[in-house]
Specification:
heterodimer, A: 121 residues, alpha+beta, OB fold (Dihydrolipoamide Acetyltransferase, E2P), five-stranded mixed β-barrel, 16% helix, elongated, B: mainly alpha, 7 helices, 0% strand
């Protein structure tokens, strides 16, 4: 076997070892609808990923929201997602029950619904 | 220092833009693709004892490196303190420094020794892996 072929094989074998933690798309979530209500304790709303830390029923959740452009399109401002704010997030939770992570499709803030993914039912 | 960089207009634009951040990200990947895409065949050619490719491929590797580092600096600017606290980023920068020093040492060699080719391959691939891991820390 040539060295090139050996290196290629080693690379192929090593690929599945990479942790599949990137939360792009919806393959990592459960299919059913999920709702979480709680208080925001921390917010990271800049590129590349919008992430809220939400305290709900004594649990600490990570709620994935949009990047700046998606939140802005939905009419959500950073001020609405500031620590201390009460929100309800609707969307899908991680298929791994041990993971307190969800991806929000819609946010309910102060009685108004903001749609982050208008194309998703 | 890092706070001042993060507070700059450019950093703010990168954090909030729809297209700039994504395109800079794409530029970083393109730079890595050109760098590694030139390095790997160059070194493997040496290890196989085939006709040396240093003269042809080294300029491409350096151009890819310049693009990757330029775009990488911009990505760092957007959220520098987060990166500085990330152990994979720290590992990547240490490996990058080693890879750059190693490359500088052999920059003028028409054909690099086999041992140096192996070290270069290992170092740059470790930089690549550590860099990818930043997102999974």
């Amino acid at each position: 076997m040539t060295l090139a072929r050996r290196l290629f094989l080693v690379t192929l074998l090593a690929l599945p070892a990479l942790p599949a933690l990137a939360h792009h798309g919806w393959r990592w979530t459960e299919d059913g609808a999920f709702e979480l209500t709680g208080q925001i304790t921390a917010a990271q709303l800049d590129n590349p990923h919008g992430l809220l830390t939400v305290e709900a029923n004594g649990e600490v959740w990570t709620v994935e929201v949009g990047q700046p452009w998606r939140n802005e399109r939905a009419g959500v401002t950073d001020a609405m997602l500031a620590p201390g704010a009460e929100i309800t997030a609707r969307g899908q939770r991680s298929a791994d029950p041990a993971q307190l992570v969800m991806k929000a499709e819609r946010l309910l803030i102060g009685g108004t619904t903001y749609d982050l993914y208008p194309d998703r039912p | 220092m890092i706070e001042a960089l993060e507070a700059s207009t450019l950093a703010e634009h990168l954090r909030r833009s729809r297209w700039t951040y994504s395109l800079v990200n794409a530029g970083h990947i393109l730079g890595i693709a050109v760098l590694v895409g030139a390095l790997v065949p160059m070194h493997l050619q040496r290890l196989r004892g085939a006709a040396p490719l240093e003269g042809i491929l080294r300029p491409y590797a350096m151009a890819g490196l310049a693009l990757a580092m330029g775009c990488g600096a911009l990505l760092f600017l957007a959220q520098g303190s987060d990166y500085l606290a990330n152990p994979w980023f720290q590992a990547k920068i240490a490996l990058l420094a080693a890879a750059l020093a190693h490359a500088g040492w052999h920059l003028r060699a028409e054909v690099v020794p086999a041992r140096a080719a192996i070290a270069s391959l290992a170092l740059w691939l470790m930089v690549l892996v550590a860099g990818r891991m930043i997102a999974f820390a």
